[in-house]
Amino acid sequence: MANAASARRVAPPHLLELGRFLMARRAEVSPNQVGLPDAGKRRTPGLRREEVALLAGVGVSWYTWIEQGRAENVSGEVLDSIARVLRLSENQRLYLRQLAGVQAVPLLPDAPPEAEAMRPFVENWWPNPAYIADHAWNVVVANAAAETLLGMTDDHPGDARLGGPGAGALGRRRPYNILREFFTNDGVRSAYPLWEKIAPTVVARFRSQAALHIEDAAIPALVEELRVASPLFAQLWDRHEVLEDSCGPEVLTHPAVGDLHFTRATLDFTRRIALRMTVFLPAPGTGTEAALRRMSHVTLAQRMNLLGRDDLVGEAR
Questions:
Q1: Which of 41, 156, 179, 253 is at a distance of 20 to 30 A from 295, taking alpha carbons?
Q2: Residue ranges of the HTH cro/C1-type domain (predicted)?
């Protein structure tokens, strides 16, 4: 009986690792780094448990339990306070939360990565359409095939144009937003021959992803904008449905080549930068691969004509 009781008291491996991790980080922080007086050389390097507990605003006994792997219901707020005292990086803070079994959502970056730094990721998929979007489905960068199919090009009517250097067209008054354009732009709507059928899945996919960053004001602002602009969106949003966004069939159409059948694959970058790349892979046996090659020649010719016009305007000036 005694042995059984002793076995039940053994801390779970993930909590033991949490304690070891904290002890290792505590040893790396000197008193003067956190505003405490340096009373000379210590027997062990770093902060004492009592000092961490004081600075984090938690009881000494409770902090001791955490390091011993005995705190099975420690809160995320307490862990974040400890992380601040121990000067943990964002990755270390998330690791701490993961070990404790509490939600570990990274803070949104202060500024997104430069679009041109991300361009090789989408260009390497050409002639397959590919784009990278943020957590609110604002497109950061796209290749020419995606721009052409989804109406991101400069010659697209309305306010949904992107512009910028290189093959892409990023850089306009506001980012091209996948959800906004899907529900409010007739030109983009025409690219989806099954628009009404897939509209519920688009909203459910967005809700599933947006839940990770619901604290960001951009998410509710976009939702409220679309509730006003699109009664269908408002109806679908109120269903509170969610759907996995990693993979699925997609049919797009283009006047030069007709319907294109894809498997849509969504690939996450590190959650720290909250970016995802969506690639449209041709469905076998549908003729889509050959159609994309034909479309690429049309797109290239249009871009050459556009460059020619820009050169003429430059010479005239």
A1: 179
A2: 21-93
Partner residues linked to 15 by β-bridges: none
For residues 207 and 240, the answer to whether their CB atoms sit within 8 Å is: yes
Say which residue the tokens 């042995």 belong to: 3
Q: Is the pLDDT assigned to residue 108 strictly greater than 90?
A: no
- CATH code of 12-36+45-100, in short, is 1.10.260.40
pLDDT band of 157, cuts 50, 70, 90 = very low
The dihedral region occupied by 57, where left means phi > 0, alpha psi between -120 and 50, and beta the remainder, is left
Q: In what order do the strands lie in the sheet with 130-133?
A: 139-142, 130-133, 276-282, 258-268, 247-254
18-23: average pLDDT: 92
Domain segments of the chain as ranges: 12-36+45-100, 115-316
pLDDT tens, residue by residue, 244-258: 888 899 999 999 899
Residue 121 has a CB neighbour count (10 Å cut-off) of 18
pTM of full prediction above 0.85: no
CATH number belonging to domain 115-316: 3.30.450.180
SS3 for the chain, per residue? CHHHHHHHCCCCHHHHHHHHHHHHHHCCCCHHHHCCCCCCCCCCCCCCHHHHHHHHCCCHHHHHHHHCCCCCCCCHHHHHHHHHHCCCCHHHHHHHHHHHCCCCCCCCCCCCCCHHHHHHHHHCCCCCCEEEECCCCEEEEECHHHHHHCCCCCCCCCCCCCCCCCCCCCCCCCCCEHHHHHHHCHHHHCCCCCHHHHHHHHHHHHHHHHHHHCCCCHHHHHHHHHHHHCHHHHHHHCCCCCCCCCEEEEEEEECCCEEEEEEEEEEECCCCCCCEEEEEEECCCCCHHHHHHHHHHHHHHHHHHHHHHHHHHHHHC
**How far is C-alpha 218 from the geometric centre of its chain's CA atoms?**
13
How would you class 210 by CB atoms within 10 Å of its CB: exposed for 0-12, middle for 13-18, buried for 19 or more?
buried
